[in-house]
Every structure is written in structure tokens, then in C-alpha cells.
Amino acid sequence: MNYKDKKLDVFLYKYKPGLIIWASIASFSTYFCMYAFRKPYTAATYDQIEVFGLDYKEVLILTQVIGYTISKFIGIKFVSEVKFDQRIKFIFCLLFISWITLFLFGTVPEPYNLILMFINGISLGMIWGLVFSFLEGRRFTEILAASLSASFIVSSGIVKSIGLWLINLGVPDFWMPFCTASIFIPPLFLFLWMLSKIPSPDAEDIKKRVIREPMNKSQRVKIFFKYSSVLIPLLVLHIVLTGYRDFRDKFAVDILREMGYNKPSDLIISETIIGFTLLIFLGSLFMIKNNQKAYKVVLVIISTGVLISGLATLLYASNGIFIQISPYIWYTFTGLGLYLAYVPFHSILFDRMIAVFKIKSNAVFFIYLADSTGYLGSLVVLIIKTFNNRNISYLDFFIFSSYVLIFVGVISMALTFIFSRKLQT
Predict the structure, then answer these.
(1) SS3 of 76, please?
(2) Number of domains making up the chain
(3) Which candidate, 21, 13, 351, places its Cα nearest to that of 199?
(4) pTM exceeding 0.90
(5) Is position 3 within any domain?
(6) Structure letter (DSSP) for residue 392
(7) Which domain holds residue 242?
(8) Tell me, what's the pLDDT at 11?
(9) Which long-range contacts (CB under 8 A, 24 or more apart) does 185-193 make?
(10) Percent of the chain with pLDDT over 90
(11) What is the CATH number of the domain that holds 347?
(12) d(CA 255, CA 395)
């Protein structure tokens, strides 16, 4: 070990603020780069292209989501069992596969290139769990998780804006995704190296948050049925949240266009405000040392997020019966409420749940259990929009989805509070 390596080890092992900063940058930036491989194609319109009489873009999005959903189900087993020293290797291999699919996407003519976006979805669906596994089980996991979560909120708008910028420069729609991803390859190597240097949780972390271990099939089944009374209502809510979030994210350009907003900066401003609001708010939860109290607070945050999205929609669609808010304010608040409810599922909710109930497991198992079922919701939403509601605008469909969210959310969270209390007693 050379002098520089020794200094880095001291920085990461002995100086907690240094570790927090390092791990936050590494995880945020790695996942940010991943979005350049996954999302930029949604910025293109693919005008006047149809597949089997259906809009090509909608079929393309549906195809990727099918692959992404399958990947989440694979991840329940794979990510929860993967050995910790193999995580970087798998992240790199999966991202490399997705990059190749984007190159071929620009080469292979439509509709045959749809299969490439399917493979792209399969390769990218397990990245989140592999990255989050570096962060869980620590006294300050909330800070790290908030940083990581901010990446998929902020990055989506930015990479789509870069995609729009490349299209305006003359890059063809089918080559734009590959070009966007290629921009992010050099920094990706740096951030993967940073990620690899993050040390495992120390003895104090294990004492406070329970040791995190790989899980076999029998352990996963046993834990699911033991805590099913809490998990099932949470999973039902997450199905709706994922469908809602995925529709808003994938058709953001179309929704904003229908409201009269056409500039790439409109996306960046809205999602950046949301991302950094959540970063500050959720990151501060590490200050709550009592796991039971923190778990209850997280449930309250999820409930509040559902109410914000629903009430903002009521105000926007009320035509002045209540307080009238502008379209852009409404769009921003639906995003804020959505991510307040959605982000905890992928970060702090299950980390605290494990600590409260002393479950010998890892958080990525619960995250992928939620994600796999959640993306079934996304598939249902996309199928309904693609095949059965061609006459409904993106904006009207999004408004309707907001009403569904608040209805399911209120019932699901009420049941979660009731059964969580029973399990604790």
C-alpha cells in the first residue's frame, strides 16, 4: 500500500464526514451516469413512426419497461445474494451491455431495434440495488440514501435535456441515446473507483442498524411471510407510485408540452428543485437515533407525499372552485409529493424497518421486492395508455392517475400503520 492509499484509508475509515462526502459523491454520480444509458431516448419524439398501428415511442417505452421489470424480479435473488467483493464488476458489466444495446439501437432499423431496448432494460434494472448495497446499514445511511435518491430525480431531467440539445445539433433521434451515454463513460470509471473504496459498516454501525448479510431463498421466503401484513399494503401502494412516477418521468416532455412548456430548462428547473428539497429533508432523518421513532416518521413522510400530489391535483383541476394554481406549480408539486412517497421505498424505509424488527437480512432484498411488483404497475399504466386510451391526452391521463394515487395511498398507509403497531407489540 502506497502513501496515497494510506491517506485515503485514514480519510474514509477514521474521518466520518470524509466518508459521508466520499460515499455520497460516489453513489450519486454512479447512478447519475447510469441514467444516461437508460433515459435519454424518451426526449426524442419519433414522430410519424408506428408499430402495428401503435405509436412507436409508446411501444419503445413499454418494451424497455418490460425488460426493466423482469430485471427487478431477477434482482430479488441476484442482488440479495451477490458477494460484496463482486459488486463493482457486475455494475461495470451491466452498464457495458446497455451501452452496446444503444449502439445497436442506432444501427438496427425499426421495429427490429425494439428488442435492443428490451435488453437495455434487463441490464440496467439491477444497478440501483448494487449501488445501494454500499450504503445500507450505517448510522448515517439516510444522508447517503438521500444523495443517491436525488440522482434519479435530477439526472432524468438533465440527461433528457442533453438528449434534446444533441437533437437540436442535428444528431438523429436513433443515435442520440448512444451519443448521450458516451458522454458519461469517462466520469463513470472515476465514480466506480470511488464506489469501490467505500469501507464496510463498522462495529458501531452494526450495533445501531443490525448486520447486513446475503440471503438465500429459504430466508427470503420466511421473512416475507413473517412481515407480510406490513409488506403487502406497502407493496400495493408502491405499485401505484411506480406506475405514476414512471408515466410522469417518461412522458414529462409530452405533459409539459401540452401545458405550453417546450424548453429543456423547464425540466431541469422543476426536477432540480424537487431533488435538492428531498436531499435536505430526507438526509436530516439520520439525526433521529431511535429506530422505532424514525420508522414512524418515514411512514408519515410517505403519507404526506401522497396527500401533496393528490391535493395539488385537486387545486389545479378545480377550475377555480378552490385555490387555482398554475400548471407549472402543479407539475412541480406532484413531483415533490410523488418523490416524498416514492424515494423512502428505495432508501430509508426498509433500512429502518430492518433495524426496528431486528431482521437478519439486507435492505436491497426488500427494495427489489418492492421494485419488481412496482414495475408491474408501470406496465399496467403503459399498456392502458398504449392500447386502450389513445384518445386521452398525456395530461388528462396524468391527472386521472393522481386521483388513483391518493385513493390507494390513504387506504394502504392506514393499514401499514395498524399492522406495524401490532408487529411491534
Answers:
(1) helix
(2) 1
(3) 13
(4) no
(5) no
(6) S
(7) 8-424
(8) 66
(9) 185/99, 187/29, 187/33, 188/30, 188/33, 188/95, 190/29, 191/25, 191/26, 191/29, 191/30, 191/33, 192/30, 192/88, 192/91, 192/92
(10) 46
(11) 1.20.1250.20
(12) 5
